[in-house]
Write a structure and sequence with these properties.
The protein is mostly beta strands. It has helices spanning 25-32, 67-70; strands at residues 11-17, 40-49, 52-58, 61-65, 73-76. Strands 4-3-2-1-5 form a five-stranded antiparallel β-sheet.
């Protein structure tokens, strides 16, 4: 499942970030921000225009992501500890 498909308020665990190449700046930036395998994540809000941007939370940090960026993050349900 993609982060962009996660329902608001549902906890999931990051399964990975899709990279389109070794020099993929978006994938690298997402990983640098904490979007790494095993981290719990949830969508806390969606914007009014086609649900964009998404407000997501990892730990105590909140981020605003475009749908295109959230489509790069794979998540898994049911593995949150």
């Amino acid at each position: 499942m993609l982060l962009s498909q996660l329902a608001q308020g549902v906890m999931a665990v990051i399964a990975g970030v899709e990279s389109v190449g070794e020099a993929d700046a978006i994938a690298r930036r997402l990983q640098d921000l904490g979007f790494v395998e095993g981290e719990p994540v949830r969508v806390i809000a969606r914007g009014p225009l086609a649900g964009e941007p998404l407000a997501v939370q990892i730990g105590f940090t909140r981020f605003a992501l475009r749908i295109a960026e959230a489509n790069r993050v794979r998540v898994a349900l049911g593995a949150v500890s």
